[in-house]
Amino acid sequence: VYSLLEATSMSADNECPVRPNNETLKTLLAVNSKVDDCFSFEEAKLWLDKISRLSDSICSETLILDADVYYAALSLLPSKSDADSAGNTFANSWLKYGYQYKGGFKSDGSKAEAMDMAKWLLYAEECGVEPNVDMYEAVIRAWTNTGTKEGLLLAEEWAKRAVSSSSATRLDTFHPIIAAWSLCEFEGAPDRVQEWNKQLSLVCASKPHLKPDLDTLSAYVIAWKNVQAGMMARLVQNGESSSEANIVSYSDESGNASRMLGDADKIFAAARNCKHFLEETFSGWSKSDDSIDIVADAMAFKTMFTHTIQAWGCASRFALLHPTSPVTLDTSRGIDEMLKIARLFDTKIDADESEQNVQHILPLLGRSYAEIASEIYQIDSALDPDEGTTCHFILKIAHIERMVRDYEFYYQKHFSQSSSFMSESKSVRHQLYEEVLRGCTCVRSPRDHGHVVRVCKLIMDHLSWQDEQCQNYGGGRVEEDITEIYVKIARLMENVVTSPHERMYVLTTIYKNAKPFFEQKKRFLANRYATVDRERLIGAMRMAMGDHESTETFLQKFEKLPPKKRARGNTAMSFVEEMLKKNR
Description:
It is a single chain. The chain is an all-alpha fold. The protein is built from 25 helices and four strands. It has a two-stranded antiparallel ribbon. Strands 3-4 form a two-stranded parallel ribbon. Strand 1 (34-35) and strand 2 form a beta hairpin. Helix 20 packs parallel to helix 22. The longest helix is centred in the middle third of the chain and has 28 residues, at 294-321. The chain is globular, with a radius of gyration of 32 Å. The protein starts with a helix and ends with a helix.
């Protein structure tokens, strides 16, 4: 394209058939200032001169070398911060800008491109051009893309320079830096995140648009969770705690306090820091504030609740596998802290009767409950069941059951006759049920089997109620497949109900509860709540019965489909029925 334009500019014919505009010239600069998909200062400088001369010769409008033109040389770079291309997923979309730091600092990241981009910005200043925010952001991202600690510190310096400049900085300008600190697993990273949020809060007095939103503030929790993950990874890699630096020992311990105790203290401290920040932020959050974005804030809290619950789950598993003497560092303490997090919703959801607000808080509540159930299950799964270890899930079964009841209570209170929240509430509800049923698989003591049956019955009762509501008030044709829930319930009965005859009775009850979801009732077909695969359920019932001699006989009545009604002949009764139908 440039060659054609250049040939035209040197033509003797004064009538120029092609007159490129400034956007064409900026595109030429953007594409040709790269070498092997990396920005090159020398190429950018060369092509800036070329398009400037081309503009003077054939363009109808003069190309003004302003900040937009200089930024064009930096634009259209390959998406090096695209998390999806690297196989990474992040809780916050802007965390992808720090993906190079996931797992720790790199020792030898390439700095050539970042140095050239910084040099280009300084060159623009030498030419009398005030760099715009896009240029500063490009340089900041270039330094964070190195993945090195030096690059991150230099990115901070450029961010500070952007704030002191006349460019219109925005909150997105600082996201690459905050993302990098959040993911790097460096023990001092949470303090750096907190310091940046603090500084932005101070600057927002004169620049209100720089006030950190809840999404940005949540990086503090993410940073602590990643610090904890880094500690755990190093312990697993070493086989045991090998770091003797900065060991925290209790004053009442003897002089031979183990390194493991110090590691446990730091791992639990990370979880405590997550929880303290979550409690402080959630309690101070006011939904009545017109300036907040309820949808964005709900997503930010989802990130904070999930990471905090996972942090306590991680600490609990560490204490389970590496027992320590202090009561404050045992598994039960971690589980209790998770259950306390569940109670944070009590006052919030009761204090706000607005359907618009509650419909964003209720999914957060349900997903947090599901995460708690999942973490307790993982704790019980960490040890060999043959060793006679304690089942924490059954110890907290009353709390688990309360969470199921609470979710349904709040849903029925606010949305029992509303279909606007139906789709999302289904997925959250089913996720909670599946995690609870998965936790029930860890219950092995016969004296606790009654609790499992009661929880299964509670879940089936709630599903039946939902189906009745869907038929009464309608719910559209958006039907989710809940076969897995009923399959898990049926499979649980294999170990929970030891008597084959009692098991057959319980399985029959499960089948009857599931029947409305696969029975083709034309009258209610358009308003079914969900669907269940009948064949899969029967297969699960067969596996639950095992090789008992009555298995096939028992299942025959379920496998046989009900006979179709034979059409009536040309009789007086059929004539009467036909006339009645016409008169309806």
